[in-house]
Amino acid sequence: MPDFSILTENFDIYLHGFRNTILASVIALLGSFAIGTVIAVFRITPIRPLRWAGAMYVEFIRNIPLLLVVFVFFYGLPSLGITLSGFVCGTLGLMIYTASFIAEAIRAGIMSVPKGQLEAAQASGLTYVQAMRYVVLPQAIKIVIPPLSNQSLNLIKNSSILGVFAGLDLMYFGDQIASRTYVTFDTYIFVALFYLVLTLPLSYMARQLERKLAKSG
Amino acid sequence: MIEFRQVEKHYGSFHVLKEINLQIEQGEVVVVVGPSGSGKSTLLRCINRLEAISSGELTVNNSKVNDKKTDINKLRRDIGMVFQHFNLYPHKKVIDNITLAPIKVLGMTRQEAEKTAMYFLEKVGIAEKAGQYPSQLSGGQQQRVAIARGLAMKPKVMLFDEPTSALDPEMVGEVLDVMKALAREGMTMVVVTHEMGFAREVADRVVFMDQGQIIEEASPGEFFSNPREERAKLFLNRVLNH
């Protein structure tokens, strides 16, 4: 049995970190969905320079460790005279990093919608953007939900990177408690439990959503 | 209203359309026949620029289809298209399949668009399916919805790209009947098909293609009873005698 006094005596600290982990995750998630969608559209447009830019983004960011992406914000920006907190740097890095994976998932989803759908929509006079919005994307979303929920779960877990940069998240405060109490193992068991409180319901919701979408047409 | 002048098309090194010259007048029903891979579908898909031509000139209603200055979306409003695999939107109900373009492209109100959609659904004989999803319909019913979807834009011409090729044999008739009715009402139609009976009965003109070229153009009576070209004779022998 873990030592529950670690949890009860440090509950406020855990909770503080837990809140920041949620905050960082929500901001990074919303941001990475927005950026990822734009990049995905870049990668499939008929406009070549945009396709290039999209491919560069995905290939560079996806193939660098997350830690180094955050380094860019934490150590790179100060040399340009911009200093951001660990929380902001970690969240931005997480956003930029996850966006590359989300872009790929969305692109794969769009590509899996039969070409005839876009053709039928365009043949009826819809513009490319309208055809995407009303015909292709709504179908792609169903295909994209499983990989996107995966990415969301990864993002929440990866948010522990904030701990490295004094980001005031769950992992950061876990480190603090462990180094103060020397009850290292038990401290991190509770950290893990807090992550599970976040990720398990999300995982469950994703499955429900999948099931619901599978039913409708 | 549709005119091909010396149109050529290449896919890389593959020469799909060669020296196409063809004129289609308003109210005409032109049926394009020929062996698979002869370029019939490509020819059709050039008309609304689902395929770009490599050279030559193609005009629809006096607009150059491949001119950068031509608003292709505007031109496409007047060109309805029916595909071999229906291409209905699976996430939308039948009625919403039909109202999408009239609402988003023509700016109709939902009410207006639904009224129009119901009119055309009745015309193709499946008004009772309006609230269902395409996957709940048979192939023949889906293709009739696709025809209604095309008509709802009140196009000046309808293109049919092998509209019965993906259907079970017992459903071919119901789709052809709708197309015949449309032809009788004076709709301008360009139909790529393997249904020789339809061509014979409905076409004003039959265009026979082989290897990217138009080999013969004739009235159906002439074409079926007395084809001039050797390749057309061979083709008719194969499709009619079996």
From TrEMBL, chain A:
One of its GO terms (cellular component) is ATP-binding cassette (ABC) transporter complex. GO terms for biological process: amino acid transport. SUPFAM superfamilies: MetI-like. InterPro entries: AA_ABC_transptr_permease_3TM, ArtM/GltK/GlnP/TcyL/YhdX-like, MetI-like, MetI-like_sf. PROSITE patterns: ABC_TM1 (PS50928). Gene3D superfamilies: MetI-like (1.10.3720.10). The chain crosses the membrane at residues 20-42, 54-76, 82-103, 155-173, 185-206. CDD domains: TM_PBP2. Its main location: membrane. Keywords: Amino-acid transport, Cell membrane, Membrane, Transmembrane, Transmembrane helix, Transport. Residues 18-206 form the ABC transmembrane type-1 domain. It is a multi-pass membrane protein. GO terms for molecular function: transmembrane transporter activity. It is found in: Cell membrane. Belongs to the binding-protein-dependent transport system permease family. This is Glutamine ABC transporter permease.
From TrEMBL, chain B:
SUPFAM superfamilies: P-loop containing nucleoside triphosphate hydrolases. Belongs to the ABC transporter superfamily. Pfam families: ABC_tran. InterPro entries: AAA+_ATPase, ABC_ATPase_HisP-typ, ABC_transporter-like_ATP-bd, ABC_transporter-like_CS, MetN_ABC_transporter-like, P-loop_NTPase. The lineage of its organism: Bacteria, Bacillati, Bacillota, Bacilli, Bacillales. The keyword ATP-binding applies. It comes from Paenibacillus abyssi. This is Glutamine transport ATP-binding protein GlnQ. GO terms for molecular function: ABC-type amino acid transporter activity; ATP binding; ATP hydrolysis activity. Transmembrane segments: none annotated. CDD domains: ABC_HisP_GlnQ. Keywords: ATP-binding, Nucleotide-binding, Transport. Residues 2-236 form the ABC transporter domain. It comes from the Bacteria.
